[in-house]
Write a structure and sequence with these properties.
Largest sheet: 5 strands, mixed
Shape: globular
Number of strands: 30
Strand content: 25-35%
Number of helices: 10
Length: 574
Amino acid sequence: MQSVEKVAPAKRAPSTTSGFQFRTPANIQDFADDQTKQSMMNSLWSNNLDGFTQQGMLNNPWNTTNTPPTTNYYNPIDNNPPSNAANIQWLAFPGRLEYNFPTATQAKLYEMADTGIMPGQISDDPCGTGQSVAYFPYGPRGWQDEYCEWAVTRNAEGKITRIDFTCENPEYWNTLWEVDPNKVLALYQSILNKPQITLQDLSVPGIVNPVTNQPVYNPLNKWNSGPVSSATAGGAIHLTSTPNTIQTEIALATTSGVQRFNPPPPPPTTNTMWQSRDYNNLICVGQFGQRFRNSDPNIGGTVNNFVTGGAMVTLADPPGLYIQMPDFSAYKTPDGTDASTFWTIKRGSMTLTSQDGTSLPGNFILHAVYEVPASKGYTVSDITISNVPINWGSQVAYTFKMQIVASAYAGTIPNGYEPVGDTTPDNTFAQPLQLFYQDYFDTLYNISVPNPVNHPIPLLSNSTYVPSVINVGTASASMVVVVATCTAQENQPATYPSVTFDDPNIKATVTAVKENVYYAVPGNSQPSTNTALYITVSVGANAAPGQHGVYVTNAGQQRQAAMPALLKVSSATA
């Protein structure tokens, strides 16, 4: 491996403690009328983002080469010096449609972006040759993979009356449900203007949260599923495409900062600058994100170049994905009304400041609705964009951008690395991926989610990295840890790995193994095959409250790195 140190001006001395807490997306306060619950929500959310950041900064020490822990990404929880903010923007319309179907007309692309019905298959390896597979990501809105999704409401004549656009991350709504499921219900009813929604509609049948004794949230419930909305089903509350998560966004920002030689050796080079035209190649060299999206190459390439310039980077607070105001200049209404008046910001805001009062760039819209009042006597479909009637929600999506905001301060230019590769068998270790309660895992894994390309995947693909919570003093909790590159075999106890935690007061025993577990681990565009370890977990009275990492050690190997923040110990006693 070639590694070259480059020199930059000395880094500003960071503070040792920051006293920092992440804010909720767009600093939204959904419990404004209940300060106790809002404080709980704020604390839970900040802790979750801290955990996601730790996971991303660790990179992959288990089964890939040239993937060191990040050096130029900082966690504001630990270190939050003065910094400058810059936004990174991209088109909300799914860019991979245009790449994969270059002969499709614009009208056909609009239709595909709304329906998910594709004219053919695509390669399962955008960085190589691969095999032809159904268009991915899979799921009821999987193809809307630019961190923006929408659902369209039509009248009896088939004309569009309303389009809901959302970029809210699923982790936030899972956390909101943890605090108060009834608040989630009330928000669904008010945002979608559907008072008929019930708590049962939003819940996974047959299981409860063992800590709260509340129902378990179903992220693909009937009111947050698919591209069509009606009085009986459908709607867009938060993102559902498997790569559309905030944990993914953070992982993309952390790992893309690792410097990659351009071009990759041989011959040797010290250049780690990548031009925008090469960002899709950087995706392959660094193995982060999905090639040919409008979002991932742009985000990853821009962050990478910040680091090439010697910057220490992070996602500006509050981390999130944000819709920008559309460009209404090509819109025309039947009566001459300004088309922008029909755009309503349901959640989020036009502007936002940092915690020190500095204005942040761009808009911070989380959910917007495009809808013509019934009193006007016409519909959204009677409005034109560039003289073409709005027949699809994607036509509106084509007129606005998405953004994230990065913050940076002066740092040291890090080492450059060769492309990410695979480890040798002797240097391949078990990689902990996710940790669930067993009933949650079994139930969601056995619920099949249909999609327009007829490639169903388990509902478990819409789980999140929000950590499972367990009480101090729990004597025997049945859980499942999903692991990559695990050598365990079913019904062969001698092959079972050990599962340990970063606190010796938390103990686990492997009781069974399930091989060939197939689902899309959150953040991934395609399903993968991994191993599920069924474990019994106990938490001693002296276990430290808070988030904990999980180690999985294959039989015959030494313990490697823990996956951070997969379990959260509550100080409440069992």
